[in-house]
Amino acid sequence: MNITLRQLQVFAKVAETGSFTRASEQLFLTQPAVSQQVRQLTETVGEPLFDTIGRRTFLTPAGEELLSAWKGIQLQWQQFEENLQATRSLHRGTLRLAAVSTAKYFVPRVLGPYCAQHPGIDVKLEVANRDRLIERMQANLDDMYVMTKPPEDMDLTCDSFLDNPLVAIAPASHPLANAGILKLQDLAEERFIMREQGSGTRIAIENYLSQQGATLNVRMELGSNEAIKQAVAGGLGLSILSRHTLHRDPLLEDEVVILQVEGFPLMSRWQVVRLQQRRLSRAAEAFLELLQAWIPAYLGTKGMGI
Q: Is the pTM here over 0.90, yes or no?
């Protein structure tokens, strides 16, 4: 059914005034133009919309139904405009974020002040491993993704915002804990507990080891940074994790020590990633603005410095 907004507007004005002549005057159209619009609309509907009795024009039952539908459309459009204005002014809207599991140590911290500044914005945060985030990218499910190793075979816009130092950790009681500066080969015989294959952390570690022509004795893989920290603290082995997964004082609060190894920390960058063809919502733009302002205070809580 091919009905135009202009036809509906003319129809509604005729219904309101009860006269084609008065409708044409108020719409600044000629009467033939008004009659033509109504005639085309009537043909499309397939039922008479008006009865003319004397000098007055009255709605038929079909016309009354159409007028009711038009008023409903007007109300919906008004609601749309109000919602759009609220979204533009950040009084309402939705922010959809997805982050790799290591980013859960800082992304929720910036969401706190964000939600305080924009209480009308609903936040949906998905925390998953890197492979799952790539699946979500391919399905275009989120505004932005926080990760260190974006896929190279997708059209993406990537903005780095924070260092991601990877450090070697050991239980406080380990012989290497107070050994001073270590070489990579000093770790060759140690048992290592690592993140799963495909994680950003594991990819960065394996790339470095490949460059150095070295290998590590990986005896256990876990998909949780917290589980790895507990395993290391319990004496099951050493690990390499993001510094962001540790507290300000790792020995006191995590029961692990950061080993001083040549070439460490391994440096990468946290990035906010988005599909090139996806336009950022105003809610997403506001998050990016706050993220940059928030970093110095966060690094201070970690004792990491800028």
A: no
